[in-house]
Each structure stands twice: as structure tokens, then as C-alpha cells.
Amino acid sequence: MRVLAALSGGVDSAVAAARAVDAGHEVVGVHLALSRSRDQFRTGSRGCCSIEDAGDARRAADVLGIPFYVWDLSERFEDTVVTDFLAEYEAGRTPNPCVRCNEHIKFEALLDKALALGFDAVCTGHYARVVTVPTAAGTVRELHRSANLAKDQSYVLAVMGEERLGRVIFPLGDVVSKDEVRAEAAARGLGVSAKPDSYDICFVADGDTPRFLRERLGSRPGDVVDTDGRVVGRHDGAYAFTVGQRKGLSIGHPAPDGKPRYVLEVEPVGNRVVVGSADELDVDRVVAEGAVVFGGAMPVDGSTRAADDALRGAGAWVACLAQVRAHGDAVEATARAMPGGRLEIVVDGRLRGVAPGQSVVLYDGTRVLGQATISRAERRSAPVAAAR
Amino acid sequence: MTAYLDHAATTPMRAAAVDAMTRELTSTGNPSSLHAAGRAARRRVEESREALALALGARPSEVVLTGGGTEADNLAVKGLFWARRVQDPDRRRILVSAVEHHAILDPAFWMAEHAGAEIVLLPVDSRGVLDLDALDDELTAHADQVALVSVMWANNEVGSLQPVREVTSRAHRYGIPVHSDAVQAIGQVPVDFAASGLDAMTVAAHKVGGPLGVGALLARRGLDLTPVLHGGGQERGIRSGTLDAPATVAFAVAARLAVAEQPTAAERLGALRDDLVRRVRAAVPEAVLRGPDPLVDGAARLPANAHFTFPGCEGDSLLYLLDSAGVQCSTGSACQAGVPRPSHVLLAMGVDEDDARGALRFTLGHTSTVRDVDALVEVLPGVVGRARAAGLAGKAPAGAR
User: Does B338 sit within 8 Å of A54, measured CB to CB?
Assistant: First the structure.
């Protein structure tokens, strides 16, 4: 196959590309320039945005003996990922820019361009597995968690949907530990073998998201209130807060019970931040929109017999595991598809600090069933956050 | 088989230059040393300086050897600006054409940021040729504030030749010194420093079949130039640093050959370039030639340069597809860490940003043959079709968040 290997300048993508070369593919390396104002050097744990990263990617391609190009997708990145990031925070929601980047940049802009240029697939260093399963009609492709559960990235990849799984290669899906990748990089003479992992949002300088939001959205002072509507403090912009957040709340009055308080809700219209106790963060029902469902796992029922209009056409309940954070545990849940590309998810126990805008990914064991963007999270008794 | 169509980026070293350089590399001696070995090295450097001067229409004492074209451009812009400001603090304006190479633009804008300079970008017409009326207007209005003028001899992207003689005669009426980056012109068109009237001129070895990493600023005798590199006081104190004898010797050999062969090379490469232009137009009718049309206005363009934009395509897609088919060329625009940007040259010529993205420059040199053109024309239609499809795929779908 002709394979386009995305090289971030980090160790994972370099080893992934090396394995694609070993597998006999004709591999070309590409580094994506996603930021218009790139730093000279990598700072902290931000990945892939600096000129140094581009240089490391080029050197990895040299070592592998593959052609290398830099593609400028910065305009597309700004228009989709950064703009969405700002709009979502402004709407009182908590976006996941890595999900949006995979959706719009890596597995859309990059993949579409690669296919148009005659490549058969795009290879990345993501930790996830694509499993081909025989069926009566042929085969289906499934997206699974990686063998290394601690590094698993299926949560941020599920958004690409089933159709594109046939056009991607994740050579690190079976890797058991990151040490194995670093050892392999060192053995192959890849200079990035000891480079630190990246965690933070790549386009936010020094990882200070509130400051980035303040610079781009401006200061908008408002009130911090408790659940009774009593003003307990002031803020510089409701957009900078996230449901479940505890730090950074400058609250003058102590809580009546003396316990720490958390952000329960961000109200963009009233520019208010509602705080309350940890218990009030727990939710057990989540509604999510923009659903991507794999393998017809959760069909919408075509019948219109339901008495409740809101539930008309909902599919059958499916037992699954639900994950609402990139590095969070999955919890037992039941879910069903709703008309309009929505999912309704009820968890057996409780989820804490679920913010609208986050992704929810549903699993059957290690297999991804679907993903959607949370629009509402509530207790069965009381809504916690309203849809925008 | 690969076709190398990027001679303006760098061209293969001439065999005679390789021989001369290799021979020099085996001899010891710092040209600044006073003993026999040093004197021998100094003698070979000075003979080379004389050969360079002779080839370029300069006096030997006017040749300031540098570590390449970019350094010579920096020395010209910064050295002239500082020297002129010492004479008259009001002279803060640096006049440059809007299509200069980054080796001129970036030092100029650096001086604006750090040394109080004011940059005036002189416009060009749609062919990429300097607008002399704009220069006249600027001189009429602000001549007493102008520190220097720098206008390249020939543009590196679209090959347009600039009216250097007219620029010098206009600026000299006001006693303003003029520099020209002639890196792309040597060996392509006749270049005579003395006849041009220029006060300073940049040349680089590797564009004429010499080695990388050596060049020169020709600086008129008596021109006041503040040094940029300080140290041992070599090159009349204008450019310190141990003289690179092997590179200088090879530079002189290459330059002498390039200049001697210029008339025949221009004729041969011009014909080959015209053939390339005709066949590219036939193969891809929607391709738009940028710069002066060689088939209509041949004297206005470098003979070995062709430049096209391909509507709906991105230069990096075209470059990749041609490269993978063995055809090596350039998008023509400057890169930062390999990131393509729409060319400031095309934008200055009035090309819109979308069209400017789909640019390719094809440049010929002393090793070029018709087989290189054959290879390009054979794959180009398929490449352009595929790049256009990729360009469409790259457009954000409507309704994307």
C-alpha cells in the first residue's frame, strides 16, 4: 500500500512510521503545520507545534529513508479546532480539541488530501486497534482499545466513525508499554526516543487555558453564585470555568457546611458560575448529540408507537461501558439511540463532573460502540446543566 | 531517471571548480599568516579575487568575500544604513522592491524593528518589474531621508529583470547609494558592476556552479560601509573572518566559466525554456505563466526561468506528486521549516492568494537537457489533475464547525 505517515516529531509517530515501512508499505512522511505563529522550541509538554518538532519529524524521516513534506493545515485548524474551542467555552461548554482535531484535521483534511493524492491509507502513532472481523456479508472493521490500556486513545479516535477505519493504520495498537516504543526507537536510531510525552493542548501557550481564553475572548466579569442564587464571589469570565472545577474559584464566603465547592454549572447568557458541593456534581443520565455509531450497534427504532413524543423512535437499550474523559474510567451504563443523532445514556452508579461539550464514548468490552458530544447531564431528579 | 529543474535553488558544481577546490583543500595555509604557507594561500585567494573582479566588471579591491549571498545582502542593507545614518541621522528610509528575496526584506525589516529604519516597499507591475514612477515619487518626496535603495537584478521566483541602470541613475541624482542582489543574474544575463553604476552588488558561488557557503559583496571604492562581522580585520576590516581559500578559488573558477559561457548558455537555455513554456501550456492549458512572457517579452526575463500557477492546486501537492515522479522543482516561495506560504512576490504582482498557492518554478542550468523537459511534460497533466482533486478535498466542507 501507499501509506502517508503523519509525523508529529514525537517518538510514537516515528516508530509507527518505521513499522509501516517494515510491513512493506511505500511510506511518505508528512508533518502538519497547525499553528501560524510557531514557537522555536517545544516548551513543557506541548506536542508537535514547534519548529523543533518539525525538525525532529524530518530527522525521523531521514533515518527511515522516506520522503518528507510539511503540509500547512493551519488555516483549517484555526477554522475548525480553535474556533470551536473558543465558541464552546463561550457557550459554557467544555470542548475536547483533540477530538475535534482528529475529526476535522487528521482523519478528514489530511486523510481526504492523502486519498486524493493517491495514498491508500494514513498511518499515525495513536494507541488503538482496528480489528477486521469476518461476517456473512464479508468483513466489518471495529475500533478497539489498545493493548496498553493506560495509553489507549480510542476515546479521541471514535469520532472518525467506522467508514474511515479502512483507511487508517495504527501500528502501535498492540504495543504493551511505552518503554517498548522508546526501546524500539533507540534501537532504530531515532533521535526522538527519549523525548517527553506531550499532554497539553498544543495551541495553548504554556498550558494556561484560562489565560488563552482571556486573551482571545476578553475579560467579562460576573458573579459566582451558589445553588440558592446567593452571590459568593466574582469571576473574570464565566467561559473560563468547567463543570467539576475546584481550583481558581475566588470565593469570599465559606460554604455553610465548610466543605469545598465545585463548579456545577456555567451560564453563558447570565455570565454566572454556579457552585455547590461535590455531591451535587454527581449525575446518572446523559444526553449527547452528533452521535457516531459503529456497526449498527445501536439502531434507531423506526416505530412511532411511543406515547411520549420525546422518546418517539428511540432504539432499544444496550448494556455498555461509558467513558466521559480521555483519561477516565469507563462506568457500567445502558444507552440507546435517539432520533436526530442523539444518544441517551443512563449510568448504573454515578458520574462526577460531567460537562456539556465533552465526548462520551461507549464500549462493549474493548470495542467502541459509538461516540457523541454531551449536551446535557442530569440526575434523574434534577437537571444540572441545560443545553445551550 | 530524475529531472532536476531547480537550478535557481542550487546548480551542480562545475568539474573545474571541484578540481580547484579539492586541490586547494589539500594545501595548508591561513591567507592571513605571514609565513610561506600563508603567503602561498594569500596569493591564490588574491588571484581568485582578481579573476572574480574581472568576470564581474569590478576592481579587485571592490570584492568583499562573504559566507554567501545572504551575508552579503545583510552587509549591504545594515552596513549602508548605519554608515549613512552616522552622516545624517534623518536618513532612515530604506527603499526596496516589494519582490526582493527574504535576504534583503528580512534584514530591512529587522532594521526597522531594531535600528529605527523605515521601510518603503516599491511596487512592481503584474509582470514583477519595478514601477519606476513609484521610485520617482518617493525620491521627489523624501530623497533627503533615504539611506539606501536595494533592487535585485533579477527576481528569483518569476525571473523578471529589474531596471537597475534606471534605478541607479535616479538615486544618484540625490547622492543615494544603490545595492542590487544579482545572485540569480550572473551567468544568465550580462552583468557588469562598473557599467551598472551600482554602489554595491551581491553575488553567490553556488548559483553559478561554485561551492555553497561563499559569496561576495562588490562594494564601490570609497563606499562607506559599517562592518557587520567584527574580528581579525580581514577584507579591509569590512568582513572579518579567516578567508576560505578553497571555496574562494572554486568560486572564481566557476564564476569565470559562467560569465564566459553566458552568451551561449543564455541562447541554449532560453530556447529550452521556451520549449518548456510552450509544452507546459499545451499539456495544461489552464496553467498561467507568471512574470514576463518569454515568447513575447523575452528580454525582460531570465533565460533559464519559467514559472506557472495552476488554478485549484496547492503548490505542496504539485511538488510532492512531481517529486515522487522523479521531477524536482520548487514552489518558488520561501519556507519556514518547510511550511509553504503564498509567495510575497506573486502577491505583490497582484495575484490573488488562492492562485498564488498553486505556484511552481522550473529553472534550468548547465546540466539541463531536453530530456528534463520531456520528463516534466510527460507527468504534468496527471499530476495537475490529481493535485486539483486534492485541492478540492482540502477545502473545508460547508457547515464544518
Answer: yes
